[in-house]
Amino acid sequence: MPAVGVDISDSSVKCIEIVEQGNTKRLGRFGELPIPDGAISRGMIQNSAALIKVLADLRATHHLNFIRASLPEEHVYVFQTLMPDDTPHEQIRTTLEFQLEEHVPIAPRDAVFDYEVMQHREAGQGHLYIDVSVYPKGVVQSYLDAFRAAKLTPLSFEVEAHAVARAVLPRGDTGAVMLVDFGRLRTGIAVVSNGFLEFTTTVPLGGQPISTAIIEYLKIPPGEVDKIKNERGILGMREHKELYSALVNTVSLLRDEINKHVIYWNTHKDTDGNANSRIEKILLCGGGANLAGLPEYLSGTMRIPTEVVNVWRNAFSFEEVIPELTHAESLSYATAIGLALQGTNHD
After folding, report:
1. DSSP alpha helices (H): ranges in 169-240?
2. CA 315 to centroid of chain Cα atoms
3. How far lies 17's CA from each of 30, 67, 148, in Å?
4. Could you give phi then psi for residue 7, rounded to 5 degrees?
5. Would you kindly state where each structural domain of the chain is located, as residue ranges?
6. What is the pTM of this model?
7. Rounded CA gap, 91 and 83, in Å?
């Protein structure tokens, strides 16, 4: 069923539609609205009335009905488990329910979970390798209630990193890739290996300190900060020593968080007791990824190839479609694009 992808963060809600026309796709409706400060904090709805109003305004502005929505990564638990390969499909969910308390600190009665079966895992020959995502039921219910109150009909909920991976990774990619969604208030860090989400976390570090520092040091209107970040970036601020130091400090903190999780992944073993595939590259998205010089800084200091993603990779080719969103704008829509692609002929 056609649906619009809706991505909610602590600071904004974005929607985007990918329209299928035969074997091609094009950009349909899209837009963004700010969420009042404090209405959502670290993924938890604190002011449902304020959020419902924003969602209702989004629905009215873009004539929305059916949607596919993201859920906050701050509250998801992801784990992997093995089952005999002769386990009947209808028994997988029941078996997983009995295993939940072994892997997550949520009682089964208080959990909502979904899973994917990894069919092409060599180390799991003779077994089904199951990738499981678990949320507290209360978190899911709070978002479901808000959407329904705004007269929106969710067809599905999905972990943000799942959606980003669907948007930016080539189909059939079997390597281990780290996805870094560098947002305004927080950064999502995820590892996708063999095409499946195997690890995700969120750190309370975003690009807002960079914007604030540039605005204060250069005495510019807030509306000009994105242009300066995108065009001049880190190296373009070297003439302003205090500002340059502030920017390097922020991106160094980001680098340290990313590196900590790279080390964790590369030194731990998978469910079969085998060493994880080492991280081959880091892919950046989110509005903070527009900071000029950031990929080069991370590549140079971490010795891992780092690049800014093409969020339209699995939607359409630029030879066929030129989207109305600029490249800089599109980076913050990665999750919404991945949500919109769910159910299209990409899957």
Report:
1. 208-218, 225-231
2. 17
3. 6, 9, 20
4. -110, 120
5. 4-209+245-341
6. 0.92
7. 10
48 contacts 223 by C-beta, under 8 angstroms: no
Query: What 3-state class would DSSP assign to 27?
Result: strand
Class of domain 4-209+245-341: alpha beta
Task: Say which residues have a Cβ less than 8 Å from residue 267's Cβ, sequence separation at least 6.
Answer: none
Q: What tokens does 15 get?
A: 């929607």
For CA atoms 176, 203, 212, 312, give the dihedral sign. positive
3-state SS track over 296-346: HHHHHHHCCCEEECCCCCCCCCCCCCCCCCCHHHHHHHHHHHHHHHCCCCC
* HSE-CB of 38 using CA atoms within 13 angstroms: 1
pLDDT of 253 strictly over 80: yes
User: What b/e sequence results for 89-106 when a residue is b if at least 16 CB atoms lie within 10 Å of its CB, and e otherwise?
Assistant: eeebeeebeeebeebbeb
Distance CA 289, CA 56 (A): 29
pLDDT in tens, 89-133: 889 999 999 999 999 999 999 999 999 887 544 444 578 889 999
DSSP E strands: which ranges in 9-74?
12-21, 24-34, 40-41, 44-45, 66-71
